[in-house]
Design a protein that fits this description.
By secondary structure, the chain is mainly β. The chain has one domain (about 1-70). About 0% of the residues lie in helices and about 55% in strands. The strands form two sheets. A three-stranded antiparallel beta sheet has the order 3-4-5, with no helix packed on it.
Length: about 70
């Protein structure tokens, strides 16, 4: 289903997540979470709906994004 998304709708959108990082602080082993961002990819989209003027995306990182459709040139 998500393969049907036009990649043009994903341009400029970011996927936000975090990576687990093991650290040693004052002799204690701890876990820290390091945030990261990368461009949104079709595999990150869980669901989408299209109307005449907008596309609404629900992503794996919990975001709900509404993107305006671009007017097609003839």
């Amino acid at each position: 289903m998500t393969e049907q998304i036009d990649k043009a709708h994903l341009v400029g959108l970011k996927f936000r997540g975090s990576k687990v990082k093991k650290i040693d602080k004052d002799g204690r082993k701890m876990t820290a979470y390091e945030p990261y961002e990368r461009p949104l990819q079709p595999k990150d989209v869980l669901a989408f709906t299209e109307t005449e003027t907008t596309v609404t995306l629900v992503t794996a990182d919990g975001q709900k994004l509404t993107v305006e459709k671009k007017a097609e040139k003839k």
